[in-house]
Amino acid sequence: MIRYIEKGDIFRIEGVSSYAHGCNCAGAMGKGIAVQFKDKYPDMYLEYKLLCKENKFCPGDVFDYDYGNGHIYNLGTQATWRTRAKIEYIEKALIQMLELASGDNVTAIALPAIGAGLGGLKWDDVKAVLNKVSNDYPNVDL
């Protein structure tokens, strides 16, 4: 099930301890909600940066970081911070994230409007992909 919240802090949603966000594959988390993830989970950021440097995190990939009380799913939605997100990267990453979440027994993930802010995509297009992909994973709420 998907529940859309127009405003708020994803880190304060009751009953949720796993989160996802779209990011680039160049190792930069300098704008948008990525800065909050970098500041809140500095060890995750260091691992992400290393994966990017070693070219082990590509568009469409997911870097799953277990922080002890939940998971952070970093979705590769942009090649670099200079390029736009692509809907096919988002779809591929969402499928992979939901597969990982199912395996990790994660039942709820909070995420922002991935790809529709700094990524430059239309929210309606992203929302359609979210709805389509999530139908195959009814055990994970978004």
From TrEMBL:
SMART domains: A1pp. GO terms for biological process: peptidyl-glutamate ADP-deribosylation. Residues 1-142 form the Macro domain. Signal peptide: none annotated. This is Appr-1-p processing domain-containing protein.
